[in-house]
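Handout, page 2. Input:
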Amino acid sequence: MMRLPTRRTVALPGMFLSFGLLVMTAGQLALVHSAAAQTVQNDEKVEPPRPVPGDVMRHWPAYPDDARAAGQEGTVVVQLRVTASGAPEDIVVLNSSSVVSLDVAAVAAVSRWRFEPGKRGGVAQDMTVSLPIRFSLPDEEQQQPNSKQP
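Output:
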């Protein structure tokens, strides 16, 4: 009797980046994986693309001045294709923060990142990933958005 390969769905853990306060270390960033579920063969090992930690730190998005002044925060979920060479392409906002400047800052930053390409069966391949990017302000800026500090 011939046995057909079975397929299973594996949910890969996602990440949150916080841009008001730097709360993520480079070591934690190395653990980043796709938040999307991927279908894999039982005998294939899938390694999702990961941002290169040093590159992310060099291209950390600045908190937009208008959003900071208004005390606005939010999470932007971007979806992108990471090529087999590690370049980000086809970046789109999958879920908006409802603050345009935060969405724009997230896309601009991710477009400058470089990735370790995803691999299937040890071979680098183009893969699509979703990354949630959190913009948050320190507590004192959340409570008094337009106040000037003496």
